Amino acid sequence: MEGSREQVGVVGVGWVGLVTATCFAELGHPVVALDIVEEKVEALRRGEVAIHEPGLADLLRRNAERVTFTTSMDEVLDAARLLFCCVDTPPTYSGDADLSRVRAVVERLPDHGGHALVMKSTVPSGTGAAIRRDKPDLAYVSCPEFLKEGSAIKDFMHPDRVVVGADAGSENAADAVERLYAPLGGEVVRTDVASAEMIKLASNAFLATKISFINEIANVCEQTGADVTEVARGMGLDERIGASFLKAGIGWGGSCFGKDTIALKKLAGNTGYHFQLLSAVIDVNELQKRRVVAKLTNHLGPLAGRRIALLGLAFKPDTDDMRDAASLVLAARLQGEGAQVVAFDPVAADRARDLLPGVEMPASAAEALEGADAAVLVTEWPEFAELDWAELRERMATPLLIDGRNFLDGNALRAAGFTYDGIGRAKVGA
């Protein structure tokens, strides 16, 4: 690796930026990572990682000598010619991507000097072209990230594809980016900038579509007596369909699917095209989060005064990310019905506390279930499958469990004395 080391600059050390910086350091490259939040930079210099991502803190400690954290753009510019932009692009009130942080980065880059901006942030198709119009001499490469929270290091180190988008004049920078990723072995998709930008949005929108589709099938299964887990298994064996993301539940969340699906819909709308399919995908997902309340009402009647325990708060396991988590909608709706909401999450409770006023958050699942009229499994943390459910049944006022992820063994729970209700699984626990 000695002869192929490349000094790498990373701008923005949130989740994507920190994973990117740390993994490039693991590959042997010196990295200078910038963030404008001084407290975050100081913490990272001490080796403190506030993000819950399995293996990230250990990887950073192992590569501490290769990664420099700074608040100085000049330091990054002096050290590196390849600058990976990893700043956030949250949705605005209109649903369009907020590119103000991207623009702030671009404004600080010199028109000349041999630097190349490598865009990791998720941006609408056309962003790269606009940047090149403003800075025609700046080399620009679109290299979207495809990391999943909870497995980001593995995803980075073992990519199924690496998308490298560049237009005329930026070929050398694209070659340099391709060389950085070459040791990882993923198939390289070399394309133009606009197509690279669209690949990211289209990928996430399609995955969101698969989830909303199987959730619609689950709702039909409940009416017909079919089991959606069996239906999904039979569908997924068809290589044209595939098994991934055919898991029924109470909807997708997190920082990408909702934001990117809405952004693509808005991008289409801004050109005068109405993306009807994505409108339905978004609507299905929002309704799915609320169906649990109807299930609870069917079993318990009015929910006013009932104690409902939520097991899991993060939008998925192995992360503390609460962005667009189903638990936020579910807790608010239950409180709106007059229920007393109690919740436990093994990792995300601290982040969730300020987002869920009035929700009691004890230190264990057993405490959360004490006196509960129902339990709702919201996040499929592995430790929930290891609980002694027979013992927990004795703690509950009513042994009712709504499995929002079809994660637990419904027949075993029924044998333990529970009324079990999953998503699209009418036959289980009947």
Question: In a few lines, what is going on in this structure?
Answer:
The chain has helices spanning 15-26, 38-45, 56-62, 73-79, 100-107, 127-134, 152-157, 171-181, 193-224, 228-236, 257-270, 276-300, 326-336, 349-353, 365-369, 382-385, 389-395, 410-415; strands at 8-11, 31-34, 67-70, 82-85, 116-119, 139-142, 161-165, 187-191, 307-311, 340-344, 374-377, 400-403, 419-421. With 430 residues, it is an alpha/beta fold. Strand 1 (8-11), helix 1 and strand 2 (31-34) form a beta-alpha-beta unit.
Topology summary:
Blueprint: E1 8-11, H1 15-26, E2 31-34, H2 38-45, H3 56-62, E3 67-70, H4 73-79, E4 82-85, H5 100-107, E5 116-119, H6 127-134, E6 139-142, H7 152-157, E7 161-165, H8 171-181, E8 187-191, H9 193-224, H10 228-236, H11 257-270, H12 276-300, E9 307-311, H13 326-336, E10 340-344, H14 349-353, H15 365-369, E11 374-377, H16 382-385, H17 389-395, E12 400-403, H18 410-415, E13 419-421
Helix pairs in contact: 1-3, 9-11, 9-12, 11-12, 12-13
How would you explain this protein's 3D organization?
There is one protein chain. The chain has 430 residues and is α/β, with parallel strands linked by helices. The chain has two domains: 2-191, NAD(P)-binding Rossmann-like Domain (Rossmann fold); 206-421, NAD(P)-binding Rossmann-like Domain (Rossmann fold). Helix content is 43%, strand content 13%. The protein contains 18 helices and 13 strands. The strands form three sheets. A six-stranded parallel sheet has the order 3-2-1-4-5-6, with helices on both faces. A five-stranded parallel sheet has the order 10-9-11-12-13. Helix 18 links the parallel strand 12 (400-403) and strand 13. Helix 9 packs across helix 11, helix 9 (193-224) packs parallel to helix 12 and helix 12 (276-300) crosses helix 13 (326-336).
